[in-house]
Amino acid sequence: MNIVQYIMVMILCHLACTISLTLALYESEKLHNDRANADPFLIAVYWTTHDYDLHTVASLQVVTNPFATREFSPVHQQVFANLKQLNAEYTRYAVWFPYPKLAVAELDPPSGIFQCGNVGENFSINLSCEQNGGVISQVDFASYGTSTGTCGQLQQGACHAANSSEIIQRVCIGQKTCSVPATSDIFGDPCKGIPKRLLIQIQCNPPQNNTYYNFNYLDTMLQDFLDATDGHSRIISFSTQPNWLFKLDTPHIYPDNASLTDWRYPVGTELVDDTMHALGDYYGRLVAWYTRGGFIDEYGRKHTSNYDYNWDYTEIFNEVESEHSMNVEFYTRAYDAVIQGIRRHTNNYDMKYVGMALGGHNEFGWYRYFLNHSNHAPDIPLDMISYHFYALANSRTDPNDWESFFSQLDGFTFEVEQIEEIRKILSPETRTTIDELGVILPDDNTPGAPQFPMVYWNAAAALYAYAWARISRQGIDVVGHSQLLGYPELPDLQLQPQYPSVSLLNWTTGEGTAKYWTTKLLIETVDIDNDQAVVTETTDLQGQNIFSQAFIGKNGRRWVLIINKRYANIDVFLPGCTGGQMQIINEASGFGPPTEVTLELSKITLSPFAVAVVHMPPVDIE
Ligand SMILES: *[C@@H]1O[C@H](CO)[C@@H](O)[C@H](O)[C@H]1NC(C)=O
Ligand SMILES: *[C@@H]1O[C@H](CO)[C@@H](O)[C@H](O)[C@H]1NC(C)=O
Ligand SMILES: *[C@@H]1O[C@H](CO)[C@@H](O)[C@H](O)[C@H]1NC(C)=O
Ligand SMILES: *[C@@H]1O[C@H](CO)[C@@H](O)[C@H](O)[C@H]1NC(C)=O
Ligand SMILES: *[C@@H]1O[C@H](CO)[C@@H](O)[C@H](O)[C@H]1NC(C)=O
Ligand SMILES: *[C@@H]1O[C@H](CO)[C@@H](O)[C@H](O)[C@H]1NC(C)=O
Ligand SMILES: *[C@@H]1O[C@H](CO)[C@@H](O)[C@H](O)[C@H]1NC(C)=O
Asked: Using CA atoms, how far apart are residues 258 and 217, in angstroms rounded to an integer?
């Protein structure tokens, strides 16, 4: 303890309590000791001393995955009801790649007058010449086996069912539509034990130009999201670009089954159309589909949706520095191109944009370049930037290990500080959302990884509350908890794991975990229009055991956030709290809302990783 701290504690004790200074000295000696029977830490609040203004909104991110869809999820209704109950602002909806059919509206490139299908065994190819009222007039190529290639350039593989073309001709010629299942029953088995696909190329009479838009899964999930967040600001991130926009040596084969993961979908580092016009068009059409009733496709044909949704912010891509190895010059051009594309197809100049969504660390060069307006086309807004943080762990099952989450977050605040310096110089009007903040345990996506103990939910909840509070001191606009629904391998539903430790909900019941209830507690408690932080000191001088920050509203409302950073019970003294109300989230509150307690003593016991909000009694009681 240095002399300044010594004096601070002297003053603090003098003003706020009668606890002797020896307590403070004593505490700093025995930080890592078992806290059983230890003396309580004192929390002293200087209610009249302004610390900083509160600007930081607590929010969350929702990521597309099959377990949140109407089609695949038994807890679907519960999931969206829980989202609705949060009444969150700035919720980020990430339409994300590991399930290409859920995330990409145009999975196959436009193919002119050739129409192609390419599916794995036991799926069906659906052909149609109905666009111009035509019929299937020609089968250019058909092969059940191991053929490959892109539409217009299909190539027969070593394994090929000799009668493929004949069969397709027999079934499809002269038909308006035709659906052909890729099965060995129909084509015979040309190579037993080898995975087979069916590839077909046809033409129509009269000729038609072909595109492959399919919004089925995107629509239902986005509708559910927009309904659940109606009336609130939201950030929509169609984070995944069709990978055929990039130069690829061989076409990428995505899973036919919408609920299977494809972690390798974002491939390619160079765009086919280097002007980025095609990239902008893809996003323009996508946004027009949802906000302008439809769009005009690559060949001038109208596709009608009748949707006229709206949202405030569109975020452009996600963690591209890892996914497509984009550098900042490339990304910045792409950001501009996407905005121009959206404007071209929607004529909407009011949409706001969120840029970067960086997942890496200390990438300050990105901020220096992107936030410099002279690196953008004219009339391109820099409304908001975004970036991400996850605390990591060494152990999936040992709660002692999770005490390290908090110091990792401390490290992140230094990064936030440096980003803020850059932002304030280059583009002070640009706001910030840290739109993925959470914890990822080791082996999270390994099938059969051990289930973490329930107190994990509390450790991760405490980390989020701590992050919100620490980052609120830095004036960041939004801190979004990641993410609404993850799950482990679910063999009954044939689902592969999807970051279970990141989930805010219990995937079995759809109920909120401590992570969910902590987000809700902060959303409901924080009042950025009225609250300011006031100077708050504790006798836990290194801050290794507890965190506390007090806030006071213009209306006199006073509240104190207290977080137990330890996997141990910790007692605190909060002078003046007697008669106040505490909402506490801990192991005992489980999958329910915070436990509400009327405080009869100024001593409060916090169980491991507990998060508490104490609403102080009206001032005149003191
Ligand atoms: C396709 O279905 C058949 C018959 O049900 C089955 O024997 C075969 O294993 C399936 N193939 C694949 C790749 O799932
Ligand atoms: C073809 O149509 C059937 C029936 O509508 C559908 O179940 C199947 O998913 C479609 N196949 C493809 C590849 O879209
Ligand atoms: C292919 O067609 C020929 C003649 O039409 C027929 O004899 C043969 O059985 C067919 N082969 C398969 C695998 O269906
Ligand atoms: C197909 O698209 C091309 C290029 O946009 C256009 O020139 C052609 O007329 C179209 N053909 C049909 C049949 O629509
Ligand atoms: C902004 O970018 C321009 C053009 O790249 C450069 O000349 C200028 O020095 C940059 N400004 C700052 C403050 O870095
Ligand atoms: C696709 O996945 C779902 C969910 O995992 C499963 O129920 C279904 O059987 C799968 N379909 C096929 C054809 O493999
Ligand atoms: C989900 O809730 C059920 C019922 O309360 C509980 O038995 C189960 O352990 C919970 N699962 C997780 C991963 O929290």
From this structure: 8
